[in-house]
Amino acid sequence: MLPFPDAVCPEHLQSRLQQQWQSWCEQVGNEAAGAVSGLLENDAARQIAVARAMVGSDFFMQQCSRNPALLQQLLGSDDLGIAAPDLTALDSEQALEKTLRQLRNRVNAEVIFRDFAGQWDIPAACARLTELAEVCIQAALDWHRERMLERHGEPRNRGGVAQPMVVLGMGKLGARELNLSSDIDLIFAYPEPGQSDGQSPLENQAYFQRLGQRLIKTLDATTADGFVFRVDMRLRPYGDSGPLVSHYAALEDYYQTQGREWERYAMIKARPVAMAGEGAAEAAEDLIELLRPFTYRRYIDFSVIEALREMKTLIQRQVRARGMTDNIKLGRGGIREVEFIAQAFQLIRGGREPDLRVRNILKVLPQLEAGGHLPAGCAAQLRDAYLLLRRVEHGLQADKDQQTQTLPPEPARREQLAFALGYENWPALESKLLEARTVIEREFDEVIAPPEESGEISPGEQWQMLWAGCARAEERDSWLEQLHEGGFQPASKALDLLLDLRGDRIVAALPASGRQRLDQTMPLLLAAASEVSEPLLALGRVMPLLRSILRRSAYLVLIIENPPVLTQLLRLCSASPWIAEQLARHPILLDEMLDQRRLLQPSTAKDIADDLRQHMLRVDPEDLEAQMEALRHFKQGQSLRIAAQEITGALPLMKVSDSLTWLAEAILQQSLQLAWQQVTEKHGAPAGTSAEEMRFAIVAYGKLGGLELGHGSDLDIVFVHDAEAQQYTDGERSIDNLSFYTRLAQRLIHILQTRTLSGSLYEVDTRLRPSGNSGLLVTSLVAFEKYQRESAWTWERQALVRTRAVAGSERLGAAFETLRIELLCAPRDEQKLREEVVDMRNKMRAQLDKSNDREFDLKHGRGGIVDIEFMVQYAALAWAHSAPSIVRYTDNIRILESLTEAGLMPAHQAAHLIDAYKAYRSEGHRLALQQLPGVVSGDQFEAERKTVETTWQQILG
After folding, report:
1. Tens digits of per-residue pLDDT, 408-444?
2. Under 8 Å between Cβ of 578 and 613
3. Residue 315: is its pLDDT beyond 70?
């Protein structure tokens, strides 16, 4: 039988009360139930108190069921009090955790009961919850410190003075305004570095970090008894990326050089809430004195107004964007707006008005009115409105012991809340809430001359809000929704990227100006990324670049002031991880993107060579290191431009290879000039030579020789000369000519391959020279001819098809070309040549082909690129004696066209091979820009492969 008359509870809530009562009776037994029934008999106040608690809080019911005596104790006393646990009776960490959790659950249950019964007002409830936090933090700190002392001794400074640990409580804990389900925001500190004096000593930093970690675990871990408090350490210097605990000098340096306005805002409520060690009380006072100049300036601080205005505008935008009507903390006229009103005045005027340096909002409001900062009567109105919102907040959190400030949408839950708080029904409570929020909203709008507001929120403002608030876990769902709608899918990965950046140590260490520039850049970046085809891909690829330029924030200004640069940057990074990687390694390349017209304007070979000469004129000719860096910067910039032109379609495939080839030729010529200058300065020059006529040439093979360079291609080169090998140079440290040209080649390779801060220019391969690695690095033209006529293998003659002089003496280059034509046009036994070419192809395929049942190797697979190249080389070697015109060119496509012109291959057959070759190379370029291997799905290029294989059978059998 219910011990409650019907009048205690509205009719629509009586069934819930009956269920809760019966459930409790069944769990605690007849004796406990009977005792409580007796206390409730004929006592209307007690009946109402129990009814409200049972209807309004499942958490309260849960605690009373676990502790059968609790409800009787609450009814029999006005205050059960709170006593620190006896730590000497706790023999294990598990015992400590259980004791603190049971204490927490009992105190929270009592706060709920006293609040709903109307026995305690909100200040009393918050004070008790704050006292609970202080007791638990102190108990955990003391218990763990004793264990640390046993093993590691007392931490001391370098002068031997014992060092205490101070725990700063921030936010509501610091202001003694803790909620039922609040996190606690903490900062750990100790006075000075040093070392502990025990058998296993630790540096003070490690000592206090370990102590802090154990303290957090004791409070934060969830066990069978729940948790004590969720601990948030993100308000410490550098946030999550900073050290868990700091000594005073480090704190002072951080706040003087890195501290931002929001940290001053947070520091208003900072208060020592626990401490341990000799001299702890004095150390705590010293810490507060150290922090005070950062929080409160000595003058009326108008400099903070703009930061507060931005903070306020952000609050308003968030509310408008998300329509948080039912959120009594974050919505319009909510708790946060009251806090902002008070703390804005405290930051601006607290330096000159010490009376405003109070942490508790209910104490500062009358001070603001007394000082003329609020209109007469306003403090009382704000106080009443604030207390109502805080009481409703407690009612919301009391139900399930969850951190929420959102009014429930369900009518039944709203009625339960209204009853628990003593209102006749939900409309009555809702009306009071509306009045309170109207008061707060009006005063909030009056603070620091708000800028004109527009009714609509621009996309840019939405991205600004997301970046500013993405670390707030309670708003995660809304951020995910915004990212999803912006095309970032999956949105959770995009949010993780942003959170990783916000928490990065580099970001935390930025000066205020650098952080401001990052905060300006990120909304622009997100907005631009949302416009590309794959926003998440673009965002992920641009993050390494962003990290690399954070400390050089002039680049952030470049992006902020040049929106087209950002758009193009994201487009290119989205299309190519190679470009993204190059930009991240060499941010100076961003300069290339400033002139969009020039970036996408293809250059001729002459343009590239002229640009390089002009570029090198700006470098000290005596500074080799600077010259090498300049060459690398030029190559990287030009490579970026060519890649951008390829991605945007400004350059077709064949022109891309041409441009990359011309770039390599220009760099080889310039590098050779540098090498010549260095070697001649040391040894003099061979007789009859000069910088213009070196009697030395660089011969290109392979892709460079065939004008088919790709992104990241090596250079296959051979060095030739035609000077008298046994003669000597004319310098003071004279050497024979062969040694001179060998050193010239070695110096050139050094310039090209050496890794400087900007990397290398090109990887160089010289193994195609006569006799390969066992042969001389530099060969005379006569010796080259002799080797080719008498000793060269068939594959070396095949390689000769794609050779040409690319740098050095023009005269010698022309002589080499004459020799090349002569060698290629020599008559050959076609049958023997065919067998040797096929045999070589089969060996290569066996070693290099990565094709299988599912994949096709573009280069080495059957019917792929190398098959086309081998057919072209065979045709050139077999038929050039009767048609020399087919070896005029070194690139495969023009050789195929020449075969048609000479009547040696049907036009349709050559066209099919050209189309297949272009298709393979185009895909290969695309994969290279994606940093992927040249392997595609086995069902791709089926027609092209069939055509190539058919032609192979016709030509090579």
Report:
1. 999 999 999 999 999 999 999 999 999 999 999 888 8
2. no
3. no
Using CA atoms, how far apart are residues 935 and 924, in angstroms rounded to an integer? 8
DSSP assignment of 791-813, as one string? Answer: T--HHHHHHHTT-EEEEE-HHHH
Strands 245-247 and 165-169, bridge-based pairing:
unpaired
Task: Copy the structure tokens of residue 880.
Answer: 């050039």
Q: Give the side-chain half-sphere CA count within 13 A for 316.
A: 20
Amino acid, res. 725: A
pLDDT digit string (tens) for 180-238?
Answer: 988 999 999 999 999 999 889 999 999 999 999 999 999 999 999 999 999 999 899 98
Nearest Cα residue to 47 out of 104, 99, 116: 116
Question: C-alpha distances in angstroms, 610 versus 18, 666, 748?
Answer: 92, 9, 21
Q: Indicate the SS3 state at residue 582.
A: helix
Nearest Cα residue to 856 out of 847, 865, 868: 865
Q: What is the pLDDT of residue 100?
A: 97
pLDDT in tens, 850-898: 988 899 999 999 999 999 999 999 999 999 999 999 999 999 999 999 9
DSSP string of 65-113, one letter each residue: HHSTTHHHHHHT-S--------GGG--SHHHHHHHHHHHHHHHHHHHHH
What is the structure's pLDDT at 452? 46
In whole angstroms, give the CA distance from residue 662 to residue 750: 21
* pLDDT computed for residue 107 by the predictor: 97
Instruction: Show Cβ contacts of residue 527 under 8 Å, excluding neighbours closer than 6 positions.
Output: 459, 460, 463
- The DSSP secondary-structure symbol of 455 reads S
The predicted-structure confidence for 472-529, as pLDDT tens digits, reads as follows 777 788 788 888 888 898 988 999 999 888 888 888 778 877 888 888 888 888 988 8
Enter the pTM of the model: 0.57
Strand partners, 721: 696, 780
Would you call 431 exposed, middle or buried from its count of C-beta atoms within 10 A (0-12, 13-18, 19+)?
Answer: exposed
- Tell me what pLDDT residue 302 has: 56
Query: Which two tokens mark 415?
Result: 């009625």
- Distance, first Cα to last Cα, the chain: 102
Do 266 and 235 contact (CB within 8 A), yes or no? yes
Q: Which domains does the chain have, with CATH numbers?
A: 78-295 (3.30.460.10), 458-596 (1.20.120.1510), 600-824 (3.30.460.10), 825-957 (1.20.120.330)
**DSSP conformational letter for 451:** P
Could you tell me the two tokens for 275?
């401490």
pLDDT of 531 above 90: no
Q: Are 747 and 739 in contact (CB under 8 A)?
A: no
Residues 17-53, buried b or exposed e (16+ Cβ, 10 A)?
beebbeebbeebeeebbebbeebbeeeeebbbbbbbb
Instruction: Using the CB atoms, write b or e for 439-468: b if 16+ within 10 Å.
Output: bbbebbeebbeeeeeeeebeeebbbbbbbb
